């Protein structure tokens, strides 16, 4: 591999590490916020009333703009960089149109708050509960605009190679919300109060700081943009500026998100009729953690590079970056898959210590089924971004359609066969659907780009799989030897799980290094050099 190629991978690794760190901090703060929210709301109907209201802006944002903005902005902004002014006028036109649309959508959604709460509420809610949830919704729904603004400004930063602020800003949203919840708990207000006990002050303190946090998350990106020399100014008039291709991408991306949401509705209804809805939702949170930390962080940095190569007509560089996007996450995702299956139940017994063993086992089984598809899920995410770089959103729509059809077929099987192990079947459906869509995506990319030169990536996956399976034997042995300690209580389970996890990780990376997986060596070399310097 050339020195230029190695420098490119090191740059990608640094950018990914910065983004992953921001994601970790945000997730930790998010968990802390959830604990505080539970202390304020409890787990009864009051908590459900706020959950419905605070989830609405996320659902609307995802449907209206989330995927659309992410798919459209980076390629368009990257292409505009070749304009005489560096693309500033085009970007300002694009931002002006997007902000205007987001503002209109937010006003309409907020006006419809009573209707939206009604269709998302359960039939068991009283009129008082509906009124409380509606009050929360009126305050929370403006988050749609601020989520959109955050994405718009963040994608401008990403397109210009500045990734840190975009991934760290959500931590600020959690901090602001936690300050409000802390004021609630310390201010003598009645925690876990019944529906009728909620006053306007209490409602505004919880819902208002949640929305204020999302606003802070968006405005936190203004200074980083100013530091790179970008100044937003509204520019109206959109004819003749090349937005037609962006609108086509937006329409297809919106269609893909809509199909995905329809599939989610089917999944939610199937699981609602079973006892596995909690198991599935909890397992999905754990499943998404390695995907967010590894794949999303890397591909976000890679997306900008690929978009630049596409607009410059350098197909060879696109193929090279596709290979990097496959190889670099593999060194963590393949061991995470095998190790996650091995350690799912021990880890969940530690983290979900308040749940009974049967509930933990149910979550673990669903998580194992999902983890089988962790790598294909990342492949599909990468393939979609390559198509978006070519401003082709029709193919990702077709891939999403395949995912939804296959996953829904598994859901129908649950309806026919009964609800036993529904969460596991849904998890397997998710794995199979993403694998088939990813393979089809590679096939179509082969027709579009020519030879994809994936031999080296395949070798990396095979070697990592062998190393991880052998390491799993080491981790299993530690778990077996520590069985007596595990049965002694929480402290024993924690110690044995940590030791088994460290033993597995060390063995997996060590074996991969011995098998000459270059990506594993890049992770281990700094540690090895430091140890050698310290040795006498």
Layout of helices and strands:
Elements: H1 3-41, H2 45-80, H3 88-111, H4 113-120, H5 127-140, H6 143-159, H7 164-186, H8 200-219, H9 222-227, H10 244-272, H11 277-312, H12 315-351, H13 357-371, H14 374-389, H15 394-417, H16 422-449, H17 455-481, H18 483-486, H19 490-514, H20 518-534
Helix pairs in contact: 1-7, 1-11, 2-3, 2-5, 2-6, 2-10, 2-11, 3-6, 4-5, 5-8, 6-8, 7-8, 10-15, 11-12, 11-13, 11-14, 12-13, 12-14, 12-17, 12-19, 13-16, 14-16, 15-16, 17-19, 19-20
In brief:
The protein has 536 residues and is an all-alpha fold. The chain has helices spanning 3-41, 45-80, 88-111, 113-120, 127-140, 143-159, 164-186, 200-219, 222-227, 244-272, 277-312, 315-351, 357-371, 374-389, 394-417, 422-449, 455-481, 483-486, 490-514, 518-534. The protein has a domain at 1-242.
């Amino acid at each position: 591999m050339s020195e230029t190629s190695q420098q490119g991978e090191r740059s990608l690794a640094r950018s990914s590490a910065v983004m992953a760190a921001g994601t970790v901090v945000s997730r930790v703060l998010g968990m802390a916020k959830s604990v505080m929210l539970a202390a304020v709301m409890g787990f009864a109907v009051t908590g459900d009333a706020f959950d419905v209201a605070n989830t609405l802006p996320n659902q609307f944002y995802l449907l209206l703009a989330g995927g659309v903005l992410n798919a459209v902005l980076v390629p368009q902004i990257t292409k505009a960089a070749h304009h005489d002014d560096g693309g500033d006028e085009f970007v300002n036109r694009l931002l002006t149109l997007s902000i205007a649309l987001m503002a209109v959508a937010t006003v309409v959604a907020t006006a419809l708050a009573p209707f939206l709460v009604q269709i998302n509420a359960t039939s068991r809610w009283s009129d008082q509960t509906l009124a409380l949830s509606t009050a929360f919704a009126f305050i929370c729904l403006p988050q749609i605009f601020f989520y959109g603004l955050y994405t718009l400004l963040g994608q401008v930063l990403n397109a210009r190679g500045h990734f840190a602020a975009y991934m760290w800003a959500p931590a600020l949203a959690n901090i602001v919300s936690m300050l409000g919840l802390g004021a609630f708990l310390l201010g003598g207000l009645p925690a876990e109060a019944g529906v009728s006990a909620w006053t306007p002050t209490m409602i505004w303190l919880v819902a208002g700081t949640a929305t204020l946090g999302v606003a802070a998350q968006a405005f936190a990106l203004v200074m980083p943009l100013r530091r790179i020399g970008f100044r937003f100014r509204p520019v109206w008039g959109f004819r003749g500026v090349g937005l037609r291709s962006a609108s086509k991408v937006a329409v297809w991306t919106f269609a893909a998100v809509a199909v995905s949401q329809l599939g989610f509705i089917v999944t939610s209804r199937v699981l609602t009729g079973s006892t596995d809805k909690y198991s599935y939702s909890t397992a999905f949170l754990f499943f998404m953690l390695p995907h967010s930390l590894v794949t999303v962080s890397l591909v976000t940095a890679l997306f900008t590079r690929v978009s630049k190569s596409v607009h410059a007509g350098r197909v060879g560089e696109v193929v090279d970056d596709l290979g990097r996007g496959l190889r670099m996450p593999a060194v963590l995702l393949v061991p995470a898959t095998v190790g996650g299956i091995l350690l799912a139940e021990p880890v969940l017994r530690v983290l979900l210590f308040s749940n009974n063993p049967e509930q933990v086992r149910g979550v673990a089984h669903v998580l194992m089924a999902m983890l089988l598809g962790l790598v294909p899920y990342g492949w599909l995410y990468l393939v979609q971004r390559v198509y978006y770089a070519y401003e082709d959103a029709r193919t990702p729509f077709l891939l999403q359609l395949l995912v939804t059809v296959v996953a829904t077929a598994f859901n129908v099987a649950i309806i026919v066969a009964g609800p036993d192990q529904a969460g596991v079947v849904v998890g397997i459906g998710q794995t199979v659907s993403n694998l088939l869509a990813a393979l089809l995506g590679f096939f179509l990319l082969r027709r579009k780009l020519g030879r994809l030169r994936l031999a080296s990536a395949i070798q990396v996956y095979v070697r990592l799989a062998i190393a991880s399976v052998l390491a799993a034997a080491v981790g299993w042995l530690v778990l077996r030897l520590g069985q007596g300690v595990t049965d002694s209580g929480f402290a024993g389970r924690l110690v044995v799980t940590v030791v088994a996890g460290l033993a597995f990780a060390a063995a997996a990376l060590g074996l991969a290094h011995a098998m000459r997986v270059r990506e594993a060596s890049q992770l281990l070399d700094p540690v090895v050099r430091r140890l050698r310097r310290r040795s006498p």
